[in-house]
Amino acid sequence: MHAPRKNCRLVILISGRGSNMENIVQVIAQRNLPAEVCAVIANKADAQGIQWAQEQGIATEVVAHKDYATREQFDNALAQTVAQYRPDYVLLAGFMRVLTPVFIEPFAGRIINIHPSLLPLFPGLDTHEKALQAGLQWHGCTVHFVTAELDSGPTIAQGVVPIHQGDDAQQLAARLLPIEHKTYAQVVEWLAFDLVQIDPSGKVNVLGVNHRGVI
Ligand code: GRF
Q1: For residue 141, how far is its CA from the centre of ligand 1 (angstroms)?
Q2: For all residues of the chain together, what is the average pLDDT?
Q3: Is 73 helix (H, G, I), strand (E, B) or coil?
Q4: Crossing angle of helices 48-55/19-30, nearest 10°?
Q5: Which of 20, 51, 91 for a ligand 1 pocket mutation test, highest count of atoms within 8 Å of Cβ?
Q6: Which end of the chain is less crowded, N or C, counting CB atoms within 10 A of the terminal residue's CB?
Q7: Residue 2's pLDDT band (boundaries 50, 70, 90)?
Q8: pLDDT, tens digit, for every residue of 43-84?
């Protein structure tokens, strides 16, 4: 008899709506993944996703960045709160704070983010506007490991959508959101089964998976 596989422990950080977080919680249940969302933590008391998580019976915390004088003090408090839940992975899902090494180092190699562009294109904010301004025909999202350099850690998976003539940023964001959900859910499934590895060159391998794009 095999010992039952331990669930992959996830802590999700949000700042607002929380639709990626919500989708991850639902996909874990629907696909019966060996994973559990141990806590949802926001940096703002009014993050809408916090209420939804509470209604599901998930532990929630607010560590409000405005209560701390410096980024490092906030990151230290956040790291302590996250560590209490002993996560295997920390998932940033619409978490709108830049993290310093004070947070990143204790969880190095275990923090994952979703960014709404095809990185390395368009790090930072206003990615939909930037994709439209560039006159591209395709836009997308990237799920990647978080390193101290903003929006530039190793890519785990990307999702792609077409840009239509006449699109505005809202239309493009709305087209991309379901693909964000699908891409992040796919990565969570790989994490749950412990398939994601970073090779010595710093590139990501997913065991048994050749192509990591999601459309
Ligand atoms: C997503 O588009 C994410 O890529 C970006 O912020 C948005 C968050 O949406 N960083 P939600 O809070 O998951 O609904």
Answers
A1: 10
A2: 96
A3: helix
A4: 20
A5: 20
A6: N
A7: low
A8: 999 999 999 999 999 999 999 999 999 999 999 999 999 999
Nearest CA to ligand 1 atom 2: 116
Type of residue numbered 195: L
The string of pLDDT tens digits covering residues 80-119 is 999 999 999 999 999 999 999 999 999 999 999 999 999 9
Span from the CA of 134 to the centroid of ligand 1 (angstroms): 22
- 49 Cα nearest atom in ligand 1: 12
Could you give the CA distance from residue 101 to residue 110 in angstroms, rounded to a whole number?
13
**Which burial class, exposed, middle or buried, applies to 125 when counting CB atoms under 10 A from its CB (0-12, 13-18, 19+)?**
exposed
> Which domains does the chain possess?
1-108 (3.40.50.170), 115-215 (3.40.50.170)
